[in-house]
Design a protein that fits this description.
mainly alpha; about 75% helix; elongated
């Protein structure tokens, strides 16, 4: 009875849709609109900073797009970003994007409901278990043995899924920590450069004023 109820809950949960995930397409579109490569004049370090921040934004939008597609079970949230030819990592990013997006689209076009292999594995085991479990019905010994094997596989699959999601959360957290620390370092470097430039300019003005006097 308890096992059947748990499987029912799983099936309802896996078929449910998260409104926030389903509606994230508009958010992704607004992020894409911010993807421009600003032109910076008379500042080599400023140019480096802007290019670095542009790269961070592109990678962030790309990752969000993949996550949104995977968790919404739809390829409609996948984005095909176009990167300027002047960017050195244009080819590498385009190859990565083509490969990842292609695999996800192929997965959904084949009728699979998720791009997460661990989740698909758990769901396939649940589908095999569900018709074999009947409340209050004694199963033959060979069926009981097959059910034990399925339960063992289900437990292993659930553990892999849980560990995979934990690892994903940690990797995303690490990614954003790297992004923030890199941004802070670049901004600090830019401020130091600006201060040094102002100091040199001020010193030059003082010397020029003294010479004139």
């Amino acid at each position: 009875m308890k096992a059947r109820s748990s499987l029912d809950n799983w099936r309802r949960h896996i078929c449910s849709k998260n409104p926030r995930v389903q509606s994230c397409g508009s958010i992704l579109d607004s992020l894409v609109e911010t993807l421009d490569l600003p032109k910076v004049k008379n500042s080599a370090k400023g140019k480096v900073l802007m290019r670095a921040m542009y790269g961070v934004k592109v990678e962030t939008v790309f990752i969000f797009s993949v996550f949104a597609s995977a968790f919404s079970s739809s390829s409609k949230n996948l984005l095909d970003l176009t990167i300027p030819d002047t960017v050195l990592w244009n080819r590498a990013f385009s190859d990565l994007q083509t490969r990842v997006n292609g695999e996800i689209r192929e997965t959904f076009s084949s009728g699979k409901f998720t791009a997460l292999k661990e989740l698909e594995s758990v769901d396939s085991i649940v589908k095999a278990l569900y018709p074999a479990i009947q409340d209050g019905v004694q199963q033959p010994p060979e069926v009981e043995e097959a059910l034990k094997i399925c339960f063992t596989e289900l437990q292993g699959g659930a553990e892999k899924l849980s560990k995979g999601l934990d690892l994903l959360a940690k990797q995303v957290d690490t990614f954003f920590k790297i992004v923030l620390s890199g941004r802070d370092a670049l901004l600090c470097n830019l401020r130091v450069s600006s201060t040094e430039t102002n100091a040199v300019t001020t010193a030059g003005n003082i010397v020029e004023h003294q010479v004139v006097r």
